Amino acid sequence: MSTAEHLRPSVELHVHLDGAIRIETIMDVAKRRGIPLPAATVSEMTQLCTLCEPSTLTNFLDKFNEFMHVIAGDREAIKRIAYEFVETKAKEGVVYVEVRYSPHFLANSNVEPIPWNHKEGDVTPDDVVNLVNQGLKEGEKDFKTKARSILCCIRHMPNWSMDVVELCKKYRNDGVVAIDLAGDESLNCKACEGHLKAYEEALRSGIHRTVHAGEAVEVLKAERIGHGYHTIEDPALYKQLLEQNMHFEICPISSRLTGACDPDFTKHPLIRFKEDKANFSLNTDDPMIFNSTLNRDYQIVKKYMGFTEEEFIQLNLNAAKSCFLPEKEKKDLLNQLYEAYGMVNNTSF
Ligand SMILES: [Zn+2]
């Protein structure tokens, strides 16, 4: 990250808590818990946990097997990663972030099956949400970056999804702003009964909805799309999404390293989105796995896609308008940005 670059206040809407953990923290927690790791140093562990060349989504998802078992089921660690996450985002100039995670993947009780080959413990998905909330709140207080969370359903675990929407409802006034569907998109499960029911319930209860998969936006009544690069290959769908002013959560570095897009950034679908004045944000997705920062994503699109400072400001305003905060807080966020960008307060919003 270039320190010379001015950090404009920004809004990030698509980043996974468990893909944004500090390697040092994993090493630390493993030591405390007596969990052996295949790496002795931070740089060795970084090599194990990160992708540096374009790969596949499956290889990318395999990386989580290297470290999730260290954090899952440990109250102190779960709270700590949330707290440190806010610190990291504050340093990147992020003023508001929506961070997402699967409560089930960090639990070891009330979850079937218990993930990461753990034995049954006493940390339930509900406890996980509580712990993450505590960490985010303390981080927000200490670092002044506002943080809210999105709870993820997992594509191959449709039996967890009703639980996820119930947790969204329980914590809707306490840190949680939306539901998501994440996981391996090669599993064609967009119409899985469990996910469908959960999204129906979210819609019915007024829980905001985003989804990793452009093709499922209709079926799941999503308000935002995680990535959505391939929607431009379906002109009718793409046209409709533009007309709806659908928000695309774009993750440039992620899209290259997970193999979602052509590795040549000058051919990236984001260029088309920009030309069509689509509604989108720039996001890191899983900065730890990509050994990256939000600033690097901005630098890449500036260098390879010709983004200007004005376009950066516009996309951040779009992100703020498309965030899942309640209306009053959304207005406050927009005013904060207008002020930071030296723009006249736009009261027409
Ligand atoms: Zn994602």
UniProtKB/TrEMBL annotation:
It comes from the Eukaryota. It is a peripheral membrane protein. Residues 9-339 form the Adenosine deaminase domain. Its cofactor is Zn(2+). Pfam families: A_deaminase. GO terms for molecular function: adenosine deaminase activity; metal ion binding. GO terms for biological process: adenosine catabolic process; hypoxanthine salvage; inosine biosynthetic process; negative regulation of adenosine receptor signaling pathway; purine ribonucleoside monophosphate biosynthetic process; T cell activation. Keywords: Hydrolase, Metal-binding, Zinc. It is found in: Cell membrane; Cytoplasmic vesicle lumen. One of its GO terms (cellular component) is cytoplasmic vesicle lumen. InterPro entries: A/AMP_deam_AS, A_deaminase_dom, Ado/ade_deaminase, Metal_Hydrolase. Its EC number is 3.5.4.4. It is an enzyme of class 3 (hydrolase). Belongs to the metallo-dependent hydrolases superfamily. Adenosine and AMP deaminases family. This is Adenosine deaminase.
